[in-house]
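Below is how a single chain appears once it has passed through the pipeline. First comes the sequence as given, then the structure the pipeline wrote out for it. We keep one example in the README because the format questions we get most often are answered faster by looking than by reading.
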Amino acid sequence: MKTLVIVNDPPYGSERPYNALRLAGALAKRGGLELRVFLLGDGVACAIAGQELPEGHYHLDRMLEPLVRRGEVACCGTCLDARGLGESRLVDGARRSTLDELTDWTLWADKVMVF
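Resulting structure:
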């Protein structure tokens, strides 16, 4: 099964991105599944490397690292530009992408989950 997870919300404004990446991580551990994650809108900030947070708080950048190894993680380039974020600020393996690629991924996927 081919699954696409789309994350729209800012990394720490709600728990939706956290839950999206938790679910994506659990799915990535299952056999026979292809997984892709697309960060859109404020969700692109989830991929900023080296986030400094209070002790005991979840780190979305760290949660993306195994997803990069098990699938693909892409960030909307227009959304990165609108927030003044360059690709060099992203976690290793996450990359700049386009709406055209999101369109292709949506058509590729058997299931699309939007958070």
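The domain at 2-50+58-114 is CATH 3.40.1260.10 (Hypothetical Protein Ychn; Chain: A,).

See the next section for the split statistics.
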